[in-house]
Amino acid sequence: MNEIIWGRYSLLVYTAIVSLFSLTLSIYIKGFLIVFVPSFLLFLISLKDFLQKKRSILSNFPLLGRFRFFLESIRPELRQYYWESDDDEVPYSRNQRTMVYERSKNEGGVRPFGSLEKFYENDFVWLNHSISPSHIKNNDFRVKVGSGKNQYQMSVLNISGTSFGAISPPAITSLNKAAKMGGFAHNTGEGSLSPYHEDGGGDSIWQISTGYFGCRDKKGNFCPKSFSEKAKKNQVKMIEIKLSQGAKPGHGGMLLAPKVTEEIAQTRGIEVGKDCISPAKHKEFSSPLQLLKFVEKLRKLSGGKPVGIKLCIGHPWELISIVKTMVNEKKYIDFITVDGAEGGTGAAPAEFTDHLGCPLKDALIFVDNALIGANLRDKVKIGASGKIVSAFDIAHMCALGADWVNMARPFMFSIGCIQCRSCHTGECPTGIATMDPMRYRAIDIDDRSNRAFNFHKNTLFVLKELLESVGVNHPTELNRRHIVRRLSESEIRLADQIYPKAEKGELLKKGKKIIADPRIDVYWNKVNSKSFNYIPGSI
Question: Which of 110, 121, 345, 438 has a Cα-to-Cα distance from 234 of 20 to 30 A?
């Protein structure tokens, strides 16, 4: 009886009573129909909840249970606006997001009353400064990638892969237009170079994924002719072969048929209204040697433009096999983009985002050591991506081995993203991660491109000031000795003490043990150019 009066079935009972009572009274007073209609609708909903067996909560708490699901649906928003601490990372803290918002609007940028960081917590990291600061006139830091007439002067800060389809048309155009304004690069992501990238007019890095979108035949195989036509466009400055992605390495993906619009189909070279499959691996190569031949093929077809690879480090012997093959064959990849496991994506299984792939710092050091040990560091440049947001993050990654960094989510913040984490639903409230015209109509391209440009400009200005304090003139002059990390309350170490740097060419010296990174030492003599795997029986 208590459950009926004020318990879990109360709303079912009360809506029934009110409906019946108001219906009876409406016979005499027609105005009671205003009460009957909504009460009867609520009764029907309650009755439906009670009779269904799909959701136990709704069956046991008719209508009342719906409040639970409603509150659960807005939990991220409630947490973000009311209960989240300023330094809680989910995945970007409010402090980080606020910094991006301010820089994109040319506002703020300074902090009063001292730091909010906890200096004595384990893993706190800082830069050592100099008593003799440098003076840098220009903060337009550049890194040369490739060789010959088509070498590219890469900005130290660029936009990471943002695919058309995952990101809305005006969001793509806004970011690419910002790239043109600031003279930095915008990676297309696996969705190919779209008309909206071209509308922006900015420097683009064309990412070639396992689906060969934008350069595939009807069977999904690589098409040299269509690749060459697009790759030779002046807007395309470099080519990036995507081997794996930090947020979901080795997973591939699928764009469901309802989302494959005519525009997306035309851009990717696929059929309208059919599932678009991104395989887990490439068809064009299955060994390090075949990969290098594919790199050479793309370089020739593009007219000599720099060609590199993007990967999240998994099995260490796979990267070592690529490096060793470059040494033996004297054929080189122009750059390697190291994508950390903390990188973002529109959608991925939780287990992949949480527990698969190597985090950025560890991966970056590994790749840097491998290239130095093989005496290839001058030939192969390194980009870094994966939860990089501030000028300090850029300096940190450069000190650990990167020549430049890529950011995706911070640039999305700069054009209005609020981190509601609904990218996979197509219901992005800001119109950025959606293909719904009624949602992305809210994006003003001129305004948002200015914001992304401002974020890039102001971040590099702060980077310049950091470098001056350290006493260097360019991010590439930073090294592991500039980074200090707290291991415990009473122990601190320079990064080069934690991660010893390889000696130049030490992998090529016979009889010399590799001590810089055990992963390199163990696998160097156990890989060859015929397979990404180690030689059977060698381990």
Answer: 345
